């Protein structure tokens, strides 16, 4: 019998429910099958390995729990990243799944993530004259600094909260954004202002 079209989505949604009670490593295919009400074999057909399940779950969580606010300008992008980090802080178990998935080798050969395409589109508008090499470097760096992995490293490695991670993002992204024409840069509203901030690429010309 042909499986329902939404079986894959049901599996991911149920895995997200189980994440509220246990870590990803503690979610067995048997427990997941019981949660969905299907056989383990059905789950294996959808996700042959746990790496496949992790990658798909991270993408689903990204789309459903952490939708990125739209942005066109550099300032809009920075504000969107701040909102993204605050959302990660509110649901850390989900954010850590995204961070872990980005650290493994690709298994599904997915299309570029929405944030990657959005950053590239922003650069097309903000810096149309930027040479291809620098454009790639800027896009790659901004993708990392706005990622769940960046958030997770600062959260677990330095015990920073969302406001502190937003500040770290601003300072890390500053030198990268310095490659953009000065007219495209402006200082975003940070989650927490610090006294006597150093002069960085955020400064208005």
From TrEMBL:
Domain HTH tetR-type: 5-65
Record-linked Pfam families: TetR_N
Region described as Disordered: spans on this chain: 182-205
InterPro entries cross-referenced by the UniProt entry: Homeodomain-like_sf, HTH_TetR
Low complexity composition bias: residue spans: 182-194
DNA-binding region: 28-47
Keywords of this entry: DNA-binding
Alphabetized PROSITE patterns for the sequence: HTH_TETR_2
Name assigned to this protein: Transcriptional regulator
């Amino acid at each position: 019998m042909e499986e329902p079209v939404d079986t894959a989505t049901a599996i991911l949604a149920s895995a997200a429910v189980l994440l509220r009670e246990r870590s990803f490593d503690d979610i067995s295919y048997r427990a997941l099958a019981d949660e969905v009400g299907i056989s383990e074999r059905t789950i294996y057909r959808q996700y042959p390995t746990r790496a496949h399940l992790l990658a798909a779950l991270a993408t689903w969580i990204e789309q459903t729990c952490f939708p990125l606010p739209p942005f066109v300008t550099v300032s809009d992008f920075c504000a969107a990243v701040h909102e993204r980090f605050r959302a990660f802080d509110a649901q850390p178990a989900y954010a850590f799944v995204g961070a872990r998935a980005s650290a493994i080798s690709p298994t599904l050969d997915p299309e570029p993530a929405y944030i990657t395409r959005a950053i590239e589109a922003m650069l097309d508008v903000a810096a149309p004259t930027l040479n291809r090499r620098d454009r790639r470097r800027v896009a790659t760096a901004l993708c990392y600094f706005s990622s769940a992995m960046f958030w997770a490293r600062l959260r677990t490695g330095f015990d920073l909260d969302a406001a502190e991670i937003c500040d770290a993002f601003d300072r890390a992204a500053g030198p990268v954004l310095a490659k953009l024409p000065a007219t495209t840069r402006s200082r975003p509203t940070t989650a927490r202002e610090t006294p006597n901030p150093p002069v960085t690429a955020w400064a208005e010309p």
